[in-house]
């Protein structure tokens, strides 16, 4: 019976395929608009990415009608509103979101940048379990210290676990289980990019404070305090390079070690009015600190002694800790020194909030109505707008399609980065407004000037705010300088 059904399906597939290939172009064009015309005009080319095919439900603009308002809680910050309206995220449970395809593209780009910086200082990537044994956390005494912040559960055998908010215990146990390291293997820097879980009592601000989020956490093992502090500085410098590449002005501030522990800690803060951290910054020297590390009411700078401290607000996007032997001593993470004697390793841990960086960047760079991405993190770099169907310039649709193909094929950095807004039933103005709202760094309008003897294309450059009219050669020169990751 099953074989007969499969045979009928196979015969139907074979019978349909030749008819599709031999239909007149006019029939194919009317079937799915630009999609099929691309297929017939460029049979040997990869068709462009089409906006109509992207799963980015930005049509859910009325928050009350779509139910987003009630499900996401009170929306009190710019990034949350823009990401919901732009179809980047969708609320699931309080403090938890679906990350939709455009958001995932941006997140993957950020992770690639993080990989470059972490591996550039010797980091090795691994992946540790999210399900963490209570026994490990009880040995470090953080099972009770973390309290209700931990998501706790029992398996069918009664064993207790938590969903990992961080992995100091796990990584130190991993190292200890491998036997004693040689001093020649140090420094050892292990990192991961994974989902983390924290039972926030009041999730708010979208991805800025949630219960489930992505974080990069790195753990270092060194032979001495001096070596550990050198590693600490190397990671801080890598963080500063990362934020500089993103065009984000982050301040490295003195911070409390909190429930992570250790003897030295710094936060990387992105200055923003919506920020929940109070920062004290000296106007005379490089000193800056989280206000919780200062004496109440202190306004004099403890570093230069005469500068005045001013208060700012910030969003924490990174945190570094020098741990010493806090965890390595508990779990017996040892190395053999040059005299072949076992010594407890010195440790550090270093976090970056991956999804928080994305939300914070949108928060500080964007307007109330339009997303502005760090250029390296935009989901797509270029959006091409063909003319409206039925308009006097509708015949230029093929020019737009060919332009998309040329950009992706001629400029290696733009391969997979160019989309065609094929929703030609909408006016150019309406599609242009949507493209600006979603934050494409470059929007190219194929209008009547594209039919001139010397074709010109209108180009909106989001980063500079300029509108340019360029020839094809000028367009290639402009976009040839676009950096992607």
Would you write up a description of this structure?
The structure is a single chain. The chain has helices at 2-22, 25-32, 34-41, 63-66, 68-72, 78-85, 101-120, 134-139, 142-145, 168-177, 225-245, 326-331, 354-365, 397-410, 428-438, 472-479; strands at residues 49-50, 89-91, 97-99, 123-125, 131-133, 151-154, 160-163, 181-182, 188-197, 212-222, 250-254, 264-271, 277-282, 288-290, 309-324, 334-336, 342-344, 346-353, 382-385, 418-420, 442-445, 457-461, 466-470. The chain is an alpha+beta fold and 485 residues long. It has two domains: 104-365, Bira Bifunctional Protein, Domain 2 (BirA Bifunctional Protein, domain 2, 2-Layer Sandwich); 380-485, Anticodon-binding domain (Rossmann fold), CATH 3.40.50. The strands form five sheets. Strands 4, 9, 10, 11, 12, 13, 14, 15 and 18 form a nine-stranded mixed β-sheet that branches. Strand 22 (457-461) and strand 23 (466-470) form a beta hairpin. Helix 3 (34-41) packs across helix 14 (397-410). Residues 2-7, 9-43, 59-67 and 69-73 have low confidence and may be disordered.
Return residue spans where pLDDT drops below 50 for at least 5 consecutive residues.
Answer: 2-7, 9-43, 59-67, 69-73
Shape call: elongated
Quaternary form: single chain
Name of the level-1 CATH class of the largest domain: Alpha Beta
**What is the CATH H-level superfamily of the largest domain?**
Bira Bifunctional Protein, Domain 2
Strand content: 15-25%
Number of domains: 2
**Average pLDDT over all residues:** 88
CATH topology of the largest domain: BirA Bifunctional Protein, domain 2
Tell me the Rg in angstroms.
Answer: 27 Å
Find the count of extended strands (DSSP E, 2+ residues).
23
Number of helices: 16
Largest sheet, in brief, is: 9 strands, mixed
Helix/strand-derived category reads: alpha+beta
Q: Which bin fits the share of residues in helices?
A: 25-40%
The N- and C-terminal alpha carbons lie at a distance of 52 Å
What would CATH call the architecture of the largest domain? 2-Layer Sandwich
Enzyme class: ligase
EC number: 6.1.1.15
Subcellular location: Mitochondrion matrix
Family: Belongs to the class-II aminoacyl-tRNA synthetase family.
